[in-house]
Amino acid sequence: MSGVYLALVRHGDYRQLAGTPSAFQPFPLIREGERQAKELQEKISEFCQSHEVRLYRKVYSSVLLRAWQTAQIFCREWEKQVTGDAFEIVETSALAERCVGSLANLSQSQIEEVLRDDPRFETPPADWKSNSHYRLPYPGAESLLEAGKRVADFINAQLADIAASSPPTLVLFIGHGAAFRHAAYHLGVLEFDEIAQLSMYHAFPVFFRVDNDGRWQQVGGRWKERKKQTEYTD
């Protein structure tokens, strides 16, 4: 994979239900999120020019609306401002945020009430929303680490299929903050303790290069430092 670069991009800002930890909310970008998605084109273009790389013609996106909209707006701006050629958006559930399964889109208090009323399960830990290891005991739920492994496996699979070229190639993945941070841990980019210390800016890329041995190196962009480390938000 010599010469392969990639960018991890958290979607733009979107409308969220208050107090609802499910990252599978179906709502669109707000106006600020649309602006962020438009400005993503400039950030990607600047990186491509400064590193002499070309953008891969497929843009990988989570199936959740806010990620797809971010990808769509980015591609439209890129086609208008840079090449005029159409790009393909590849939607996949493999890039989705951590799933809470059958409890999706319930509020935190509702989820905790369900668990209290279910005699099969113990009370979840106080930090269950941000606990990287904890998985809600309901069908379809996964832990944050499991979600990160899913994302990391998908990214690695795509990069393995992209042949090195000259000039080198930049591959764009648009998804979700917590899943990307946990994926970065699985990929050897972040230490475990750093997962809780960092976040991601909306529609602000973090760039990496992957060498022949599969080692990752951050080569641009920046993580967002957390002021509070009590929970993850998408």
Could you outline the blueprint of secondary structure elements for this entry?
Elements: E1 4-10, H1 31-51, E2 54-62, H2 65-83, E3 88-92, H3 108-117, H4 144-160, E4 169-175, H5 177-186, H6 192-197, E5 198-199, E6 206-210, E7 216-221, E8 224-225
Parallel strand pairs: 1-4, 2-3, 2-4
Antiparallel strand pairs: 1-6, 5-8, 6-7
Give a description of the structure.
- The protein is of the alpha/beta class and 234 residues long.
- 35% of the residues lie in helices and 18% in strands.
- It contains six helices and eight strands, in the order βαβαβααβααββββ.
- Strands 3-2-4-1-6-7 form a six-stranded mixed sheet.
- The longest helix has 21 residues, at 31-51.
- It starts with a strand and ends in a 9-residue tail after the last strand.
Using brief descriptors, characterize the structure shown.
234 residues; alpha/beta; Rossmann fold; 6-stranded mixed sheet; two-stranded antiparallel ribbon
Question: In percent terms, what proportion of residues is strand?
Answer: 15-25%
Structural class: alpha/beta
The averaged pLDDT comes out at 93
Query: What's the N-to-C terminus distance?
Result: 30 Å
The poorly predicted ranges are none
CATH class: Alpha Beta
Portion in helices: 25-40%
Look at the structure and name the CATH superfamily: Phosphoglycerate mutase-like
**Contiguous helical run count:** 6
CATH architecture tag: 3-Layer(aba) Sandwich
CATH topology: the name is: Rossmann fold
The Rg value, from CA coordinates, equals 18 Å
Tally of DSSP β-strands: 8
Q: In the residues, how many domains can be counted? A: 1
